[in-house]
Design goal:
By secondary structure, this protein is mainly α. It has three helices and no strands. The protein has a single domain (about 1-150), classed as Arfaptin homology (AH) domain/BAR domain (Substrate Binding Domain Of Dnak, Chain:A, Domain 2), CATH 1.20.1270.60. It has helices spanning about 1-55, 60-130, 135-150. The two termini are about 35 Å apart.
Length: about 150
């Protein structure tokens, strides 16, 4: 049991920090996208205003129409990508973060239970040794084995 516990603990010590770092990087990626989306909105809003102004002139009317279409298309695209990022944040990153924490709590709880069990067994063995029961049972076992060996049983 000790070996199994050590293996699981070792895996978690190596695996969980990597998962936690992945969650942190994902959150950073989302924040970077949000900053990009804000900048993009400002840029394409300005582009749309330029397009509206160009619509009012005879020579640049078609250019104004194109600028407005580009702005509207970019806004739609940004909104769709924001939806994907929201899903990614809620369904993936938050779930991973929650699972990492649950794994850590489970391993810590298992370790505590294991340590209590080992201490309990050690205390019971110590009590038996103090009472001499363990020594008496070893002597009895040795005598029994010697008799069996001597008589070929």
């Amino acid at each position: 049991m000790m070996v199994l516990f050590w293996v699981i603990q070792n895996l978690m010590d190596q695996f969980n920090p990597g998962l936690q770092q992945l969650v942190t990087l994902g959150n950073g990626y989302i924040k970077a996208f949000q900053a990009l989306a804000l900048t993009s909105e400002a840029y394409f809003s300005t582009l749309a205003k330029m397009g509206e102004q160009a619509l009012n002139t005879l020579s640049s009317r078609s250019l104004g129409d194109v600028l407005i279409q580009i702005s509207e298309t970019q806004r739609k695209l940004t909104a769709e990508v924001e939806g994907v990022f929201r899903w990614f944040h809620v369904e993936v990153l938050q779930a991973m973060d929650k699972n990492v924490k649950l794994d850590e709590e489970y391993i810590e709880g298992s370790r505590r239970v294991y340590e209590l069990e080992v201490r309990s067994q050690a205390a019971a063995l110590e009590r038996q040794l103090r009472r001499g029961a363990f020594r008496d049972s070893l002597v009895s076992l040795c005598i029994h084995m010697c008799i069996n060996l001597h008589f070929g049983l």
